[in-house]
Design brief:
Number of helices: 3
Order of helices and strands: HHH
Number of strands: 0
Helix content: over 70%
Shape: rod-shaped
Distance between the termini: 74 Å
Length: 132
């Protein structure tokens, strides 16, 4: 059992009458009522301060995360459709086609260089002012 501390309170007469009326029921004490009321008030006040401080910010973060999730789904679907298209229209290289494999390797290196350059500059290919 936790130790209890005694307090002396001054209540307005109408509030005191309500407290006495509530405490007149069996198994209920004035201390119990005051403990419950004070706990509820302090808990509500603490939550209100945190909610006021962080609610708008958390809502904005949630909206941004939703947008990021939607964008990533769009990007993945676009990439998957592009890969499917490319695989459908381009025949595979023959095992002995060294020239074709060298050309493909050079195109892939150029592609990786372009991606690295765009990322380093902070540019996005789909921006309005971007030129292919």
């Amino acid at each position: 059992m936790t130790a209890k501390v005694r307090y002396q309170l001054f209540l307005p007469q109408p509030l005191s009458a309500r407290l006495l009326e509530e405490a007149s029921r069996p198994g209920v004490t004035k201390s119990d009522i005051l403990v419950q009321a004070l706990t509820a008030w302090l808990d509500k006040r603490g939550r209100g301060v945190l909610e006021d401080r962080f609610a708008r910010r958390l809502d904005r973060i949630a909206e941004l995360l939703d947008r990021l999730l939607r964008d990533s789904h769009i990007e993945l679907e676009t990439l998957a459709l592009f890969i499917r298209y490319e695989l459908a229209i381009n025949p595979p290289l023959a095992d002995n086609d060294a020239t074709g494999r060298a050309a493909a390797a050079a195109r892939f290196e150029a592609f990786l260089s372009q991606v690295a350059r765009q990322l380093a500059l902070g540019k996005r290919t789909l921006d309005k002012d971007s030129v292919l």
